[in-house]
């Protein structure tokens, strides 16, 4: 670096990026913290000699954590952002080629879940003089296209830096997007190898420390008034709490609003733990992974107040759950989400909107009979959970029994995480939240493999309690190397592996819609090797974790308690039943063939067609 007398600094493009990221700060609960607290990195020839060099020179200001797979790094960054309620952003860097494309799936997780993360990948030379370089994919009619263009559909901000001066405009815009409550998502920077190493004279002021806050956009007064007028007419209102409640840190306002106006509250998967499980207005989880009593209440609602939810099909039962006459008020920081299904949109921050809406509803309360109906639905849910949690002495254990065992040892400061397969439904119903913002299930992208990498990322964010991750055998086999990453970084979590010998929940869908079991369970996989089972305990132990396999609920309880005292990640392996699922749910539209040689498939198609008669068109 050379400092000039004219107020500029001569540094490389890579150095400028690192210095700018370090200069960005954010206020979190009154404290000045780094906006970018760290980098997940796997170095290769596209990023090690320039960006890697600059990161090493600033190793104490912007710590780098070694990943084991690029996808795992990205999933960890997404889970970190969720655990931090989008108040800090992790950076991921890779070489060009397979290192970069490995991050595409993780970027999609971030985009689907509206999570901020920054990806910086190496790129080919802008001069093209050494082309084709190692790991370059050539496009005959589009020579400027590289594999990094694959990120365009799965990020909110995409740029390729072809000149060092471009940083002065792109970096402020990128940071602004990452902090925008309605527009945030993953950001991508492609960094060509020659540009990364090129020096340029940047204004010194470009690297001045900047302290930022996340804006809280207030609602438009006319939108607010229309929503208030509609709610005042409601006889059977229901409030859906989505992930936006967490990102706005609006949980207290939500609880106060529900109590003041007697409105039952249901939660999406992303919104789970917006209310404590023992809150008087908490009814339960909604939708396809929801409870029957909760869904039955929602089906009776005449006004739906959707707060911070994108109204995914698993929430709405593919838009069959609500009565055709039910009106929707949607509070969301993103206008795209707020305006879905001709809802009365209230665009703004959830905390601010709930406070303003409550003020406008002063003196109004839902009819007491309806409030009591919510209380009864919650009581029905608790009866179901109690029946599912009760040990029945049958081996192997059910998913619900395992969830109950983890719940029994969990404290309000612990954090539980899962993603795919049968666990989202089992946890969504059977987990009564003990702490606010202590639950994470990736069901925006439902990414197998998120469970372990996500637990590693969440461990960076959590300063109290333990992170519990529950994973099926299928997801474990897809992505498990971050067990070692957690050991290497000393970011501990407790992993419970439920082995039911296959992709059992997809087999349930396959058979439940008239098909025959095929290629999901080990027993019906082609090859004849289904008797060969993975020793998950030995595998996890080989990755450096404490590992144990348990055979009973008592052994599981003891192992969970012991895991708290371990100095590094602990893995507990449990054999689980493949077909014992908690009842509940709602209609879900999937593609079932109109013609088939199997009568069961035709019957399932007829059932689908009948269910679609209740689907809202608007």
Walk me through this protein's architecture.
This protein has 618 residues and is α/β, with parallel strands linked by helices. The chain folds into three domains: 211 residues, Thiamin diphosphate (ThDP)-binding fold, Pyr/PP domains (Rossmann fold); 160 residues, Rossmann fold (3-Layer(aba) Sandwich), CATH 3.40.50; 186 residues, 3-Layer(aba) Sandwich (Rossmann fold). Helix content is 37%, strand content 18%. It has 24 helices and 24 strands. The chain has a six-stranded parallel β-sheet with strand order 6-5-7-8-10-9, with helices on both faces. Strands 15-14-13-16-17-18 form a six-stranded parallel β-sheet, sandwiched between helices. Strand 9, helix 6 and strand 10 form a beta-alpha-beta unit. Helix 11 packs antiparallel against helix 15, helix 16 packs across helix 17 and helix 16 runs parallel beside helix 23. The longest helix has 22 residues. The termini are far apart. The mean pLDDT is 96.
